[in-house]
Design a protein that fits this description.
- 17% of the residues lie in helices and 43% in strands.
- With 69 residues, the chain is an alpha+beta fold.
- It has one domain (7-68): Beta Barrel (OB fold (Dihydrolipoamide Acetyltransferase, E2P)).
- A three-stranded antiparallel β-sheet has the order 3-4-5, covered by helices on one side. The chain has a two-stranded antiparallel sheet with strand order 1-2.
- The termini are far apart.
């Protein structure tokens, strides 16, 4: 059974919360991140372009801090 998603309404659109970023890959000129969504199981993880994660800047910064260590 999946957990209930944690979402927020931002600018009249649903915004799901990113729990964590685990990996990244370069796709053309853009970076994509493997995103774990808060309130979802791992089967819902997705590769999302950075431009598609405007409200996850802090989580992305945390990822790069861990990645560069």
């Amino acid at each position: 059974m999946d957990l209930v998603p944690l979402l927020t309404i931002i600018h009249k659109e649903e915004e799901y919360k990113v729990k964590e970023v685990q990996k990244h890959k370069k796709c053309g000129k853009e970076i994509q991140y493997l995103v774990y969504w808060k309130g979802y199981r791992n089967k819902h993880d997705q590769l999302i372009a950075e431009s598609g994660l405007p409200h996850a800047k802090e989580v992305i910064e945390d990822y790069w801090t861990r990645y560069s260590s």
